[in-house]
Design brief:
This protein is mainly α and 156 residues long. It has six helices and four strands, in the order αααββββααα. It has a two-stranded antiparallel ribbon. The protein has a two-stranded antiparallel ribbon with strand order 3-4.
C-alpha cells in the first residue's frame, strides 16, 4: 500500500504575510479548475480585487503607489538586462557579461563588485542562495540530477 505524500504551502522567501500561503495556493488551484487552464497573474489579481477576498491585503490597491512600484520594477528589469560585451582586438571571441549586479538594496557595476572583497563575498552568498532556491524549485526533477548534485555539493 502506498501512502500519499502530504504537502503544506509556505512562502519561499520566508517573509511573514497577513495571508497564509495555503490560502493563495487554494485560490490558484481553484482558478486552474475553473478555467481548465493555467492561472495567469491577472487572474489572481482579479480574484483578490474584491475587498472581501482573503487575498485582497496582499496587493497594493492605491493606483498611484502601485504605478510607482511598477515603474521601479521596470527599472530593475532594465538594469538587470544591460550587458557588457568585449570588443575583440584580433580573432579572439567576444565575451559578454552582466554589467550590473544587485547587491543589498541597489545595483553596482560588476567589475567594482569583483574587485571588492566584501562585495564579492556578498555576491557569492547571493549566488548560493539563488542556487538553493533553484534546487527547491527544480531539484526534484530526475532529469536535472547532475545540476542538483553539483549545487548540493557546493561549500557553504
Amino acid at each position: 500500500m502506498t501512502i500519499a505524500r502530504q504537502w503544506a504551502a509556505r512562502w519561499a522567501d520566508g517573509r511573514n504575510r497577513t495571508v497564509p500561503a495555503a490560502t493563495v495556493a487554494h485560490a490558484i488551484l481553484d482558478i486552474e479548475l475553473k478555467k481548465k487552464d493555467a492561472c495567469e497573474a491577472s487572474d489572481l489579481v482579479n480574484e483578490a480585487r474584491p475587498n472581501t477576498s482573503p487575498l485582497h491585503p496582499l496587493f497594493e490597491w492605491d493606483d498611484s503607489v502601485a504605478a510607482e512600484r511598477f515603474r521601479e520594477e521596470q527599472a530593475r528589469h532594465i538594469i538587470r538586462n544591460v550587458r557588457f560585451t568585449s570588443i575583440p582586438a584580433n580573432d579572439e571571441p567576444a565575451i559578454t557579461k552582466v554589467a550590473f549586479i544587485s547587491i543589498g538594496s541597489g545595483y553596482r557595476n560588476i567589475d567594482a563588485v569583483l574587485r571588492s572583497k566584501p562585495l564579492r563575498e556578498k555576491m557569492l552568498e547571493d549566488a548560493r542562495n539563488q542556487l538553493k532556491a533553484w534546487d527547491e524549485r527544480f531539484g526534484h526533477l530526475s532529469e536535472l540530477a547532475v545540476i542538483r548534485n553539483a549545487i548540493r555539493g557546493l561549500p557553504d
